[in-house]
Amino acid sequence: MGELINAVILAFVEGLTEFLPVSSSGHMILTNKLLGYTPDDQRIITFEIIIQLAAILAMAIVYRTRIANLLGLSRRTEVIGKLSAAGRRSSRRLNLIHIALGIVPPLLLAFLLRDIIKGDGFNQLPVLFALVAGGVYMWAAEWLVERGKIATVSETLDDLSYRQAFLIGLLQCLSLWPGYSRSGSTIAGGMLVGASYRAAADFSFIMAIPIMAAATGYELLENYKYIQGDNLTFFLVGFVASFLVAWLVIVIFLRYIQRIKLRHFAIYRFLLAALFWIFVM
């Protein structure tokens, strides 16, 4: 029974933090430490892959209509032609080129640096520094936008240009530093290149689906042998719990996004770094 409770705890942490700009990897390292799991426990490594897949599924369901439109599978055509920030009627629409420009830079760099990331990247000190650095980065991006230093030219997802998508993809490479946060780097990065908070968040979440699917799929091929026997119930409980929590978090975050500032997440990251220093270092 204790193992199933641990499965729910880990799945809850994963679902709660995967898509918020607070670093899921930092939270998982801290939670595993508090629960007594070691970093080289292959069963737990495989479990984390499973609950990440559940979080991806939740994201895909939330954005199912947009994904269907991107793939040309939807009969429903969304109304395009809203007024752009410049007052002109825009005919642009998010398409697969935007997604490719956003995901190729981090995927390519992750492939080239995979041994470094999996080796030294998950050491405790780099993660601690990443939590702080990511918080400063997010707070600075929001401050620049609120002070009018950076103009918001893309209010909606369909207003994003190819240039903006590529620049967000480049800034997303910061998330390869474990503890930095993929959503934090992309949401703040989107705001830095002129996207609104909501447009940057939507683009960040949609890009997460192919990126995380590729990463977790690759890792699952290396660890699938641990999904058997007595572990099945442990994995199933974690999958369901992670899916439900991730779905709820995404829906709530998107509903109240304008009230939740990036600096709030930055302050939380600083507090997490302090806990990290006390309990993990």
Automatic annotation (TrEMBL):
| Cellular component terms (Gene Ontology) | plasma membrane
Bilayer topology annotation: Multi-pass membrane protein
Q: Which UniProt keywords apply?
A: Antibiotic resistance, Cell membrane, Cell shape, Cell wall biogenesis/degradation, Hydrolase, Membrane, Peptidoglycan synthesis, Transmembrane, Transmembrane helix
Enzyme Commission code(s) on record: 3.6.1.27
Query: Catalysed reaction per UniProt?
Result: di-trans,octa-cis-undecaprenyl diphosphate + H2O = di-trans,octa-cis-undecaprenyl phosphate + phosphate + H(+)
Main localization category: membrane
Keyword Ribonucleoprotein in record: no
Task: Tell me which HAMAP family the record gives.
Answer: Undec_diphosphatase (MF_01006)
Matches recorded under PANTHER family: UNDECAPRENYL-DIPHOSPHATASE
Name the chain's protein. Undecaprenyl-diphosphatase
Q: What is the lineage of its organism?
A: Bacteria, Bacillati, Bacillota, Bacilli, Bacillales
Which gene produces this protein? Answer: uppP
